[in-house]
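Consider today's protein:

***
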Amino acid sequence: ASSGLSASQLTSSVVTSLQPAIASAVAQALRNTQSRTSTSVSALSPEEEERINAQQSANAQYNYEYKVGDDDKQTYISHKEARDGQNVEGSYNYIDATGSLVTVNYQAG
């Protein structure tokens, strides 16, 4: 099913949607970098890392798909992925050097 959006509109929509999260992550990384000396390393305990990952993953949702085709270079690639919370499903495929279609399906979560 087509959304009726052009590739440019879709790209703009995705970038606009992700921009606040990216800006926040960059700001946090910069704060962390500025607050540490070059010789100290701050590591999370496994429990802290698990808790933070669970918080960040709990409501994550997205769907995306793209296809690239270049007849001159004989390059054909596609990828699609969907995430709902901690569950991710997707697939990608490409035409290898022998002309065979290679497809990889994956799931995590």
Remarks:
- The chain has a mean pLDDT of 83.
- The chain is about 40% helix and 35% strand.
